[in-house]
Structures are given as C-alpha cells and as structure tokens.
Predict the structure.
Amino acid sequence: MEQQKISDIAFEALFNFATIGIITVDTHGAIVLANPYALFQFGYESDELTGKPVEILVPARFSHDHVKKREQFTEQPKSRSMGIGLDLFARRKDGSEFPVEISLSNYKGVDQIYIIAFVIDISVRKEAEHGLAQQQEERALMAQQLKSLNEQLEQKVEDRTMMLRETLHQLEKSRDELTVALEKEKVLNDLKSRFVSMASHEFRTPLSTILSSVSLIDKYTSEHDQDKRQKHIERIKAQVKTLISILEEFLSLGKLEEGSIQEKKQAFNIREMMTELISEMSHLAKDGQHFVFNCTGSEAVYLDRNLLHSVLVNLVSNAIKYSGDKGKIEITVHHTPNLLSISIKDNGIGISEEDLKHLTDRFFRGTNAINIQGTGLGLHIVKKYLEVMNGCISFTSILNQGTKVFLAFNK
C-alpha cells in the first residue's frame, strides 16, 4: 500500500510539473486529462478541456483526417512519434496555431485503452530553423551575387585584357609604321644625298661645256670662223639635250612614284616601230657602230607604244654608250601568240655579276661605269615602266665582252 502511494505521488509530480504538454484521450477521442503545461500551451483553464474531443486542439483544416487517423491508432495502438518529416500544428483556444512535435503512447485501463499524447511546442526551434533557412538563403543569394560579381569581374578583366591587347597591337602597329616611316625617311635622305652628288656631277659637266663653248663663240667674230662657231653650237645643242634628258628622267621618276603613269594600249606594227627607232638612234651611234635588226612572228602587237618606245630608247642608248667604236648592236624581236620578246645585245664593257643584282636600283652605277656620264636612274625607270605594262626585264653579261637585255610581255 505504501509503494502504491509513492507511485501515485511520483506520477502526480511528473504529470503536473512536466515541461511538455501531456494529454490523455479515451477510445472515443474525448480528452480525459491535460497536465498544467498542456493547458498553458493551448491557453485553456483547468477542466476546460475535460470531455472535449481532442480535435478541438487540431487546426480545422486537419481535423477530418485526424479523426480517421486517431481511430486507426486506437485499433492498433503502439508507441510512436507523429508526423516524422512533416510539419504538425496545434490550435490554441484563441484559434492561433503553433508548430508541435507529438509522441503517442497508450495504456490499458480497466475498461478501455487510453492514448497519451506528449506535445512539445517547437516554435522556438522553427523560428531558429526559419532563421537558419533564411540565413542559408541569404548566403546562397550572397554566393550567387558573389558569383555574378566574380563573373562580371572576370568579364571586365577579359575586356580590359582585350583592350590592352588591342592597345599593344595598335602600339606595335604604330611602332612598325614609325619604323617604316623612319626607314623611308632614311632612304629618302640617302636618295637626296645621292641626288645632290649625282646632280653636282652630271649637271656640272654639260654646263661647263656650254659655258666654254659660249666663251669661244664670242671670240670667233670673223666670217672665216663660221665653221668653228657651228662646231661649238652643235656642242651646246648636244649638252642641252643631255640636260633635258636628265630632267626628263627625274620627271618620269616623280610621276612613277606618284602612280600617275597609266598604261594606254594601242595596236601598232612592231617592225615599223623598231625600224623608226633604229633610224632615230643611229644619229647617236659612235663611229663605226652599226645595228643588226631581226623580226620574226606576227608584226601586229597591242601595247602602250609610248612607254615601250621610252624603254627601248633607254636600252639602245645604253648599248651605244657602253660599247666601243665599230661595235655591233643586235636587236631581235620575236612575237608568238603567247609572248612578245625583245632582246638588245652589245659587245661593250659588260657588267660584273655583283653589279647585276643592283642594276635596276635607283641611282645605281656599275663599278666600271663611274666615269661614264649617267644618272643611275635609267634602268630603274625602265623596270617601273615594264611593271606598268606587265612586262619583265632580265640581263646576262660578261665583263669586257658585252651585255644582253631581254624583255618579255606575256599575252
């Protein structure tokens, strides 16, 4: 009897002072007992819940299903936790709801089975979980923002890198352009120096000759001196022609550099043109020099006659200038449906193998032609004319045996 009393006191202490809600329900779902903490949780006074259906503590939206589940539990009672993995809510007297965890147990009374529900208010935990979830969302948002900022930063770095690369490319391009410009300036300065040197030499000789002849003519005053005067007049004419030729070369070079010389094709007879040119050049030939001309194939050609004439005058003049007296100058024209070739061969002083590489450079003079009058522009102009006409030039030569110039025009 004493032991039973101790058990009753212990149960009463546990029931009344527990910090979780304890509710006992009979098989009909009526509340039999509710401990003080449960009354506090749900906002009820003592005895307000006794005899009331347990569904009064369940939110209305869940009450219908709760009845079915309670009846099923009554039929097969066993201790278990309710709503594992689910969010459970209880309803207070004022209708407000709060999240709970519920564990169920049962015991067999004298006349029926009673269900005991242990109710824990988990509002604080849910708030903490909500706060944690919110923090996680905020961290996720921050992570996303950081990722976005990182991507933007990477894009900016890539854009800046591209801008730097483009800037470096432009700087390199400017540097290359500056280098080219400086190189051109250097070449131009070199050309100016060579021009001054050439001009001082090439213009001085004919001008000195002209001045000398004019002075001598002034002394020949009698009628008997007419032959002497005529001789010096011819010398003056020849030197004036030389000066004009030099100036024409410079004018031609300037036009070529400007790109103002364009090809103007026309049909003409190549044999007739060559015959006229040889007749024209014969007046410049040295004593005993003679021409040998041969023309094969079709005589009708379609080229820029004026440019071709200028090219041939220059080449034939060189053959005369660099050949000795009684030399032979051979001119050969061969015309096929696909090719027009013209060769000019002399037996003059020839050109060294080293000089052949630079023969068409501006102001270049062969080492064995330094003392022979010339500007060093003739063959350079010839090459430029041929480029306008889509032609090409080549040379073969042996020192002291002569030179052969070969022109080719493809159809």
The CA atoms of residues 160 and 406 lie 58 Å apart. The mean pLDDT is 80. The two ends are 138 Å apart (CA to CA).
